[in-house]
Model the fold of this input.
Amino acid sequence: MDGGGGLWGAPPPAVESLLDAPFSDGWLTPPPPPPPTLSGTALFGYPQGSFENFHEQDLAPLTAQEMLALQPKISIANTGSTGALQGLSTSSVTLDRPAADGYNWRKYGQKVVKGGECPKSYYKCTHMNCLVRKNVEHSADGRIVQIIYRGQHTHERPSKKRIKVCGGLSEHLADFSGSVDTSIRSQSDYQDYCRNPIVSNDTMVGRLMENMEDGDEQLAGSSDSQQEHDDEVRTDDRAAADASANERNPPA
DNA sequence: AGCCTTTGACCAGCG
DNA sequence: TCGCTGGTCAAAGGC
Done:
């Protein structure tokens, strides 16, 4: 995406909802608690985090079952906004949505690492005096496989009016962002999101729709207990975490 | 006008 | 010391 004025552009609201709603906790089967060693690192084995991740290129690696489950839902979600998916950029290098965690991020670099199979994007928090950085690593198929937070935010999340996420659930997201630590989502919620669709996409979307209707209250609940861990860099854990993530969601 | 992404270059750490 | 790799900078261009 060619940013220009917005951190993450303006994905169709419905799809935004699909993607961001899973950050709310407490839906679908209770996920296993995130390994403490994953603090500051989010692992991904499933398209997530952004509308862009759901364009055809990124759906490709999904299993047929997942495709069947996902695409119709997206289509339904986009009812009234037909062509939304077609309007997506086919560029899949930078596909995550850092702003989805409630903070504003500016991409300051991108590097292809690991033999060119893993493009890695580097983000800074745009808040002045905030030195938090975030590395987003993509798999070869464009899916986010890992997010690494570096440092701690020295400020509150931007007010919802300033969060440059767009569309229907953006306000929900903003509220959610105001109540849940960024990195907590990066860990448990993202992981939950990674797992849940595999459990049941129907359920996932159903919950999503519920979230859309129920609003902030469902989004508000979260634990702050992990916050103190969240922004620490635990690069030592990356390998193990990555391995475990791959076990759960082996790359396509 | 402001803020963003893109992208090549530069720098530092490591084997 | 050299080469590789990963992280950052900064100019250019877009919205």
In short: The mean pLDDT of chain A is 47. Residues 4 and 10 of chain A are 11 Å apart (CA to CA). The longest strand of chain A covers residues 105-113.
